[in-house]
Each structure stands twice: as C-alpha cells, then as structure tokens.
C-alpha cells in the first residue's frame, strides 16, 4: 500500500482542505450569531450550525496545521505498551498437592494475585 499522504501534493491538498473547513465553520458561526433563536420546530437549525462550526473548526485546524503529518505514527510510552503477563509465583515446598490452591482459585479470591508473589505455608 502506498503512502499517498506523504507526497507534497497530498500535503498541500490536506492543508487547503483544512483552511476551507475553517472558513466553512467561520461562516456557520457567523450565521448562527446573526440568527434570531426561538423555540419551536426551527430550533434544530442553530444546533446544526453550532455542531458544523465546532467540528469544522476542530478538523480544519488539525488538517491545516499538520497536513500529511496527521497520519504519521507516534511513539507509545513503555507504560502503555502491552506486556506479557507473568506467571504466578507460588512457593510449593512442603505443601501436599491436594492442599495447593489452583491459580483459578487465587484469581477468584484476589484479582491481582498474578502480580503479587503468594507464599503458601504448610498446615500443621
């Protein structure tokens, strides 16, 4: 798949589209300010103009400022990357097999058991 947004022509086109969206939102907000708002069936038009003004200004400013860089991948912090889930650490010395808790039992009792080391003491 080609990266169409990395060309100079696409970058310029996206920026022009952003400026035209900003102009459209400015016209919608100017029309909204000039309207006489009342109640009744015609009260939907002011909301539509306000939504058009807000969305046009938001998307237009992003396109005008970033252009083709809007689609560039960003770095993800180590904190937000997917980490492999560690195995539960259970000390099984001196505990008979029938008295050992199963990992499912540990997760039911304490949902964060897979993060914390669990020490099982011998009974008796």
Provide a concise account of the structure shown.
The protein is mainly alpha-helical and 124 residues long. The chain is built from three helices and two strands; from the N terminus they run ααβαβ. The protein has helices at 8-34, 44-66, 103-109; strands at 90-91, 118-119.
Please explain how this structure is put together:
This protein has helices spanning 8-34, 44-66, 103-109, and strands at 90-91, 118-119. The protein has 124 residues and is mainly alpha-helical. Strands 1-2 form a two-stranded parallel ribbon.
Low-confidence stretches: none
Percent range of helical residues: 40-55%
Strand order of the largest sheet: 1-2
Structural class: mainly alpha
Order of helices and strands: HHEHE
Distance between the termini: 67 Å
Sheet with most strands? 2 strands, parallel
What would you call the shape? elongated
Strand % is under 5%
Which radius of gyration do the C-alpha atoms yield? 30 Å
Number of distinct beta strands: 2
The number of helical segments is 3
Average of per-residue pLDDT values: 78
Features:
124 residues; mainly alpha; two-stranded parallel sheet; 3 helices; 2 strands; 46% helix; 3% strand
């Amino acid at each position: 798949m080609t990266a169409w947004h990395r060309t100079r022509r696409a970058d310029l086109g996206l920026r022009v589209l952003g400026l035209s969206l900003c102009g459209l939102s400015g016209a919608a907000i100017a029309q909204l300010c000039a309207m006489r708002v009342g109640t009744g069936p015609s009260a939907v038009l002011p909301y539509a103009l306000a939504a058009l003004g807000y969305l046009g200004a938001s998307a237009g400013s992003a396109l005008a400022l970033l252009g083709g860089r809007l689609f560039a991948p960003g770095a993800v912090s180590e904190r937000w990357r997917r980490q492999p889930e560690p195995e539960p650490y259970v000390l099984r010395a001196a505990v008979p097999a029938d008295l050992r808790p199963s990992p499912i039992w540990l997760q039911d009792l304490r949902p964060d058991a897979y993060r914390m080391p669990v020490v099982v003491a011998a009974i008796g």
